[in-house]
């Protein structure tokens, strides 16, 4: 029974960061316009927070990251898979919202 509950938790949380960071209006990643692999970047950031000043989980801001650390570690490879599936969407979103000189020339037909 406990294995079934664990499996259901993993399945329901799989790629959770990818879904939230890709489709949120204001994601929690530093570069809000670049959503390419946003789930993986958010997970890595969440894993790094407790280790910022050594291992310190006493701060109110850090406690949730400490409690969710095992789930976040499990979520990294699952988010990587889901972020890869979302790559055509996120890359298009990034290119359309952050035009470079090359992108502008392509729009003008040069």
> What percent of residues adopt helix (DSSP H or I)?
55-70%
Main pleated-sheet profile: none
In one word, what is the shape? flat
Number of helices: 6
Tally of separate domains: 1
Kindly state the mean pLDDT as a whole number? 75
Structural class: mainly alpha
How would you sum up this structure, described in words?
By secondary structure, the chain is mostly helical. It has helices at residues 2-13, 16-23, 38-48, 63-67, 69-97, 101-108.
At a glance:
The protein is mainly alpha-helical and 110 residues long. It has 6 helices and no strands. The longest helix has 29 residues, at 69-97.
Summarize this structure as a short list of keywords or feature phrases.
66% helix; 110 residues; flat; 6 helices; 0% strand; mainly alpha
Task: Write the topology of this structure.
Blueprint: H1 2-13, H2 16-23, H3 38-48, H4 63-67, H5 69-97, H6 101-108
Helix pairs in contact: 2-3, 2-5, 3-5
